[in-house]
Amino acid sequence: MMVVGLLLLLLADFALYVVLGLVDKIGHIRRHGHVPMWLALTLSSLTVMVHTFATMRLLGNVTTGEEAAFAMVAFAVFGFLPVSAAVRMLIQTISNGSVDGLYGWNSPASVAAHDLSKAHQLTLNQDIVGAIREYKRCFEADPSNPDALFAAAMLFEQSNRPNEAVALYRDIICRFPKGSVAWVTAAYQLALVYEVRLDDPVTASGLLREVVRLKPCSDVGQLAQTRLNEAFTRSLASA
């Protein structure tokens, strides 16, 4: 019977560990590292309860002191992974300030909106360096939203720092899926920088053609096609 108890403890702890890992992974994908506070607390409590219950079932089959000692070792060894995973999830949730998991306070979107307003004000005050720093902090708070990076790149352009704007647009291209709205918009803006500010029509044309290929019917795709047509007309006129 002790073997059955050990198997029950092992299976229970393994199942808890798998569930905690899946929840933590989904939380990172959907909430950028946040697992809701209520869920972290519930899973942490459930982990301790299930692990303790399985251990009690195991101890119920113990008949000797040696078996009791072995059961306690199993309690510590088998429970290490799920309990440590639950504690890690809870610590990460608290450190990320995930009270938003309970009531939606301080969510990435609200933090981002706050940072954007601060960055906008810094821009109005002509503090370009401070505004760009705030835009980048805003993006770090909500990496699924590229608006802050676009705003920072535009500031670089307006400050006559095209190479830094290029770096940010390329950063957006690297971070977001090819063909997404963020990707094609960044590619189009990057093409404009190459064409207008860096006098590199070849690179610009390649980017514009890629935008048209990926999103021919979208607004940005049509803008890209228009610029390609204009470039072709200019080339014919100068020939």
Average pLDDT reading: 76
Order of helices and strands: HHHHHHHHHHH
Q: Can you count the beta strands?
A: 0
Rg calc? 28 Å
Cα shape: elongated
Q: Which percent range describes the beta-strand content?
A: under 5%
What would the CATH topology of the largest domain be? Serine Threonine Protein Phosphatase 5, Tetratricopeptide repeat
Number of helices: 11
- Gap between N and C termini, in Å? 92 Å
Instruction: Specify the CATH homologous superfamily of the largest domain.
Output: Tetratricopeptide repeat domain
Total count of domains: 2
Give the class-level CATH name of the largest domain: Mainly Alpha
- Give unreliable regions as ranges: 28-33, 96-113
- How does CATH name the architecture of the largest domain? Alpha Horseshoe
Percent of residues in helices comes to over 70%
Largest sheet: none
Give the class from helix and strand content and strand pairing.
mainly alpha
